[in-house]
Each structure stands twice: as C-alpha cells, then as structure tokens.
Amino acid sequence: MLKNEKSLDEELREAVRKMAHSLEEILQKVNDANLKLDHLIETYHVGRQIPPVNAYDPFNGYYQQ
Questions:
Q1: What does the radius of gyration of the chain's CA atoms come to, in whole angstroms?
Q2: Are 55 and 64 in contact (CB under 8 A)?
Q3: What pLDDT, in 10s, does the model give residues 2-49?
Q4: Could you say which of 1, 41, 47, 63 would form a disulfide bridge with 54 (CB–CB 3.0 to 4.6 Å)?
Q5: What is the pTM of this model?
Q6: Whether 58 contacts 65, CB under 8 Å
Q7: pLDDT tens, 14-26?
Q8: 47-59 in b/e burial notation, b at 16+ Cβ within 10 A?
Q9: Cβ distance 64 to 54 under 8 Å?
Q10: Which of 44, 40, 65 is nearest to 54 (CA)?
Q11: What's the DSSP call for residue 60?
Q12: What's the rounded Cα separation, in Å, for the pair 11 and 15?
C-alpha cells in the first residue's frame, strides 16, 4: 500500500532536518580542529624557521637562489 503524500512529505522534512543537523556537527568539529591546528602552528612555529632551500630547476640544470 502506498503512503499518503503528507506522510512522505513529513518523512522527507525529517530526513533533511537530520542531514542539516549532521552537517552542523561536522562543521563544528572542523572549526574545532582548525582552531587546534592554528594553536599548534603558533606554538611550534616560533624559533623553528626553516631556511629556504635552493630548488633545482631541471629545465636549465641550475639551482635557483
């Protein structure tokens, strides 16, 4: 037996609501991870500057300054 149109609409709305809630949770976790990453970069970047590396250019056979 087919469900009536109103119950299908309610099921779709509920599914969309659940997906939106899941996306909000994912966004919050991504934002938290970005904050932690920013903190790590700020904390461990100080005094750990890597000197520039002379890159080899295969087209002219020389290292670039």
A1: 26
A2: yes
A3: 567 777 789 999 999 999 999 999 999 999 999 999 988 888 876 566
A4: 63
A5: 0.56
A6: no
A7: 999 999 999 999 9
A8: eeeeeeeeeeeee
A9: yes
A10: 65
A11: T
A12: 6
